[in-house]
Amino acid sequence: MPAATFVDSHCHLDRLNLEAHGGDFSAMMAATEEAGVSHMLCIGVDLETFPDVQALAEQYPQVFASVGVHPLYKESREPSVAELLERAAHPKVIAIGETGLDYFYAKEEREWQKRYFIAHIEAARQTGLPLVVHTRGAKDDTLNLLREHGGGEVKGVLHCFTEDLDMARQAIELGFYISISGIVTFRNAESLRDTVKALPMEKLLIETDAPWLAPVPFRGKPNEPRFVANVAECVAELKGVSIEELASITADNFFTLFNKAQR
């Protein structure tokens, strides 16, 4: 086991490309462990496939789950607060989401996105579980809905963060963490790297968002949780700390935020 131990705070294990492991999920998990990844949060993106996410969390002690409907999954069954609460009662479900607003890819689909988002915020408020938020090109509406419907009670994370420093700071004031993906390693991500430099370590998480957004030097290939080590290496360099310290702090942050999870 490597000296550093990482937590991948956002991945989609049910959607991975396993070609590099001969199609063998257990081989991928073994490679993940060998790379020093101790825990993973497998994110639900719709209600139809949530049973697959839950099953992985039940099978692997190092895997946790979330339940929600992604803001680009309009075809998914609309989430009711009652159904989210029911699903979130499972002992391995530690978060509500992925939810949020995406005006970059779906700028004409704002009303139903807002309605879905509000339902998730309410479920997070009632359960006390953190909210996993996808936000792109929707800064003001995202923050305003969190303020209006979260009532200061809802905490969470802005995952795969690519927005500006002002949004990150406002989210942190609301009790949110900022999660950094492999995008931070991309050549054209200088503004994101500047944002990471300015953010407090105690509010940072790291993730892969696998199977998408593989970090350099794997960009363009299928992503997987073991590559979170490459994200950590980049963030550690930006913050001027060792990779071991970065891994330790972000792991502690994960278990502080997702406090239903057991190490």
How would you characterize the overall build of this protein?
The protein has 263 residues and is of the alpha/beta class. Helix content is 39%, strand content 17%. It is built from nine helices and eight strands. It has an eight-stranded parallel beta sheet. α2 links the parallel β2 (37-42) and β3. α3 (81-88) crosses α4 (110-127), α4 (110-127) runs parallel beside α5 (139-150) and α8 (228-239) crosses α9. The longest helix has 18 residues, at 110-127. It is globular and about 45 Å long.
Tally of extended strands?
Answer: 8
The string of secondary-structure elements, in order, is EHEHEHEHEHEHEHEHH
Bulk shape: globular
Strand order of the largest sheet: 1-2-3-4-5-6-7-8
Radius of gyration: 17 Å
| Whole-number mean pLDDT | 96
What summary fits the major beta sheet? 8 strands, parallel
Which ranges are low-confidence, i.e. pLDDT below 50, for 5 or more consecutive residues?
A: none
Please count the helical segments: 9
Report the sheet-strand fraction.
Answer: 15-25%
The percent of residues in helical segments reads 25-40%
* Global structural class: alpha/beta
- For the record, give the distance between the C-alpha atoms at the N and C termini, rounded to a whole number: 17 Å
